[in-house]
C-alpha cells in the first residue's frame, strides 16, 4: 500500500495538487471558524492555512513518515508537539 501511494504521488501531480488544495481549504475553514469564535487570533486565515499545511507535511508525506519509522522516531509524540505548536502560533490560549 505504501509503495502504491508513493508511486501515485510521483506520477499523478494533478491529483496531489488537488488534494493539497482541498486540505488547505479545510484548514482555512477551521481557522476562520476559530477566529470568528474568538478562539484563534489570525489576521489572514488563507495564509495561516497554507502555513499549517506546510507544518503538517512531514506527517502527511509517506516517504517522510517511512523515514521517521525506520529511524525509530516517535511520530505520535512529534505530531502532538506539532499540533501544540501550531495552535500556539494561531493564537490559541492554553
Detailed description of the structure:
The protein has 94 residues and is an all-alpha fold. The protein has one domain. Helices cover 79% and strands 0% of the residues. It has 5 helices and no strands. It has helices at residues 2-11, 13-36, 45-60, 62-70, 75-89. Helix 2 (13-36) packs across helix 3 (45-60) and helix 3 (45-60) runs antiparallel to helix 5 (75-89). It is flat, with a radius of gyration of 15 Å. The mean pLDDT is 86. InterPro entries: Tet_transcr_reg_TetR-rel_C_sf (IPR036271), TetR_C_27 (IPR041478). This is Transcriptional regulator. It holds the Pfam family TetR_C_27. Residues 1-72 form the Tetracyclin repressor-like C-terminal domain. It comes from Mesorhizobium prunaredense.
Descriptive tags:
94 residues, mainly alpha
Give a brief description.
The protein is built from five helices and no strands. Helix content is 79%, strand content 0%. This is Transcriptional regulator.
Count of domain modules = 1
Helix content: over 70%
Work out the number of β strands: 0
Give the helices and strands as they follow along the chain. HHHHH
User: What is the overall pLDDT average?
Assistant: 86
Shape: flat
Strand content: under 5%
Radius of gyration: 15 Å
First-residue to last-residue Cα separation: 38 Å
Uncertain regions spanning at least 5 consecutive residues: none
Largest sheet composition:
none
- Distinct helical segment count: 5
Structural class comes to mainly alpha
Task: Chart the SSEs and their pairings.
Blueprint: H1 2-11, H2 13-36, H3 45-60, H4 62-70, H5 75-89
Helix pairs in contact: 2-3, 3-5
Domain Tetracyclin repressor-like C-terminal: 1-72
Protein name: Transcriptional regulator
Organism: Mesorhizobium prunaredense
